[in-house]
Design brief:
By secondary structure, the chain is α+β, with helices and mostly antiparallel strands. The chain has one domain. 17% of the residues lie in helices and 47% in strands. It is elongated. 12% of the residues are buried. The mean pLDDT is 94.
């Protein structure tokens, strides 16, 4: 499979199912997301982000300039099934990504996910180390 076929596959990943799981976990039913498939040195990623959530975090907005739901880690990779057939897998983490009023940014993972055409979506809420 060439890189263009991988990009085409990534563009067909049903992201709405991931977004619905994020809405369910966060209790924020009005989350809106944008996404795009990017090719960084033949490493295919699906990047997504929500709208700014600063108006939803109450007194914590004293600590944050901006907060969104994004992914820190994600990639489309080849996997090999038990019968030695190869298939594509999209894996990643959903994170609260934030910017401080004085500058600097960071984030915190709350969900790990996987998607492939064989198993569909799989989700694992992040419970820390």
């Amino acid at each position: 499979m060439d890189i263009e076929q991988v990009i085409e596959w990534a563009e067909r990943v049903p992201m709405d199912e991931l977004y619905n799981e994020i809405r369910r976990l966060t209790g924020l039913s009005d989350l809106k997301f944008t996404s795009k498939v990017v090719n960084r040195n033949n490493s295919i990623r699906i990047l997504f982000e929500s709208q700014d959530l600063i108006d939803k975090i109450g007194f914590l907005k004293l600590m944050f300039k901006e907060i969104r739901i994004t992914q820190f880690n994600s990639e489309v990779v080849y996997k090999t099934a038990e019968d030695d057939t190869k298939y594509l897998l999209f894996w990643g983490t959903a994170d609260f990504s934030y910017t401080h009023p004085s500058g600097g940014s960071n984030g915190c993972t709350f969900l790990t996910f996987w998607y492939d055409d064989i198993h569909g979506w799989q989700f694992e809420p992040y419970r820390g180390l």
